[in-house]
Write a structure and sequence with these properties.
Elements (H helix, E strand, L loop, with lengths): L1 H20 L3 E2 L1 H11 L5 H17 L5 E10 L21 E14 L3 H68 L4 H36 L8 E2 L18 H21 L5 E12 L10 E11 L7 H67 L5 H36 L4
Helix pairs in contact: 2-4, 3-4, 4-5, 4-6, 4-8, 6-7, 7-8
Length: about 425
């Protein structure tokens, strides 16, 4: 009953090795790029830019002549009349009903820069919207980081479990030869068989979790990921050293853009107190025309300039500017709180990096010693000096030490990446 298990596992390992030769290899940077390109929110950038172009064009049309066609019919109870009559002069009575149709053309001459400031305000709104998309994509990259490194841990566990199983098969082959010769007890082989079955069970569970992670990664990146997909462990050596530079995060940049927009809004409110100058033309036809005493339908024209100036608004302008100033102060407090949380997070990550570096230094020493002990135990097992259980104790200790080393290496790179990401330097 032992040989079929060995044959099945050998075939499984051969299948895995064959797939590895044809495996799709992914890097974290490529996953970042593909995830951003595949993110539906990324399409909003083009839409925001198009909306700004259209809105800017609409605002610019205020400098073009504004035309309007109007018609009116009315009746009035009183009309102008001469109080006296002059001999030999027939003064006709003015009709009570009036009719007119006219075209108004208005041309803005000077508005104190209001149109230009409106365009700048729209540009600020667009920049905030674009920064919002960048912030969403940055958070997406951070989610990719978590998913990517979880798969790396599954990948490292799988590799070490397969190596441990290879070692057990080697020992099992020697044991079965000893059992056939009568120098070993069959129970020793049973112990190794049970351990191998346990590793195969762990591998099955691990591969399901790894497949789930790869599927999610494929959905986020748009890549066709499968069980054969292999991820490369990224290496980060040079880290930003300054804890004071915490302003590269897209969220912080967006707060700055919001302050710029409020500054432009304050400038816009100030323009409400500026006078405006416009030219106008009126072309009309009706009864009466410009001569109010005529009963004839006639055409008429009028040219002129119009000056408007709202010089008193009961302090409404000042109050609006005060409200905007308070909003700027609110954003200032948000920026201060953000910078403080960034400094705390970066200091914690720095300590985490130092902790893992020390663990790795110890791991190397532990693995070196465990390898010597495991090699000695394997030799003593082959000689029949110790039992399989005693051998497994040392072999499992070695496997655990190797696993700790590999996981700590991955965790070190993840912590360094988290440091870079928190600083806002994630590409």
């Amino acid at each position: 009953m032992k040989t079929p298990l060995l044959t099945f596992t050998g075939a499984l390992m051969l299948f895995c090795h064959t797939n590895t030769l044809e495996a799709q290899v992914l890097t974290l940077d490529s996953c970042h790029r593909m995830a951003v390109a595949n993110n539906p929110l990324s399409k909003q950038k083009i839409l925001f830019e198009e909306a700004f172009r259209l809105q800017s064009k609409s605002i610019g049309s205020n400098y073009l002549p504004q035309t309007g066609l109007y018609a009116q019919a009315s009746w009035q109870s009183e009309v102008p009349r001469f109080p006296v009559s002059l001999p030999g002069i027939d003064i006709p009575a003015v009709s009570n009903d009036n009719y007119k149709i006219y075209l108004d053309v208005n041309q803005l001459i000077w508005d104190g820069g209001s149109v230009r400031r409106q365009k700048e305000l729209e540009a600020s709104s667009m920049q905030i919207d674009l920064a919002g998309v960048d912030a969403e994509n940055y958070r997406l990259k951070e989610n990719i980081n978590l998913l990517y490194f979880s798969i790396l841990q599954f990948q490292a566990n799988e590799k070490l479990l397969i190596l441990a199983m290879d070692e057990l098969y080697t020992r099992l082959t020697v044991l079965r030869a000893g059992i056939s010769n009568g120098t070993m007890l069959p129970s020793n082989a049973d112990v190794l068989d049970a351990e191998i079955a346990g590793i195969e069970q762990a591998l099955t569970d691990l591969r399901y979790n790894k497949a789930a992670g790869l599927y999610k990664l494929g959905e986020l990146t748009g890549l066709d990921t499968g069980p054969e997909t292999r991820l490369i462990v990224p290496v980060y050596e040079n880290l930003p050293l300054s804890l004071s530079d915490t302003k590269a995060r897209p969220e912080y940049l967006m707060l700055g853009l919001q302050q710029e927009k409020i500054s432009r809004q304050i400038s816009m409110t100030g323009l409400r107190a500026m006078p405006r100058l416009a030219a106008f033309t009126t072309l009309g036809y009706g009864r009466p025309g410009l001569n109010m005493l005529s009963n004839d339908f006639t055409s008429y024209a009028m040219l002129g300039a119009r000056l408007s100036w709202k010089f008193w608004d009961w302090n409404q302008l000042r109050n609006d500017q005060s409200v905007l100033s308070v909003q700027q102060q609110i954003i200032d407090t948000r920026k201060e709180a953000f910078e403080m949380s960034q400094r705390i997070a970066l200091n914690s990550l720095k300590q985490e990096i130092l902790r893992i570096e020390n663990l790795i230094a110890a791991d190397h020493r532990i693995v070196e010693l465990r390898e010597k002990v495991a090699m000695t135990a394997a030799a003593r097992l082959d000689q029949g000096i110790i039992t399989s259980s005693e051998y497994l104790t040392e072999q499992n200790a070695l496997t655990k030490a190797q696993l700790n080393l590999e996981l700590h290496k991955i965790q070190l790179q993840q912590s360094r990446l988290n440091y870079i990401s928190t600083m806002g330097y994630l590409k």
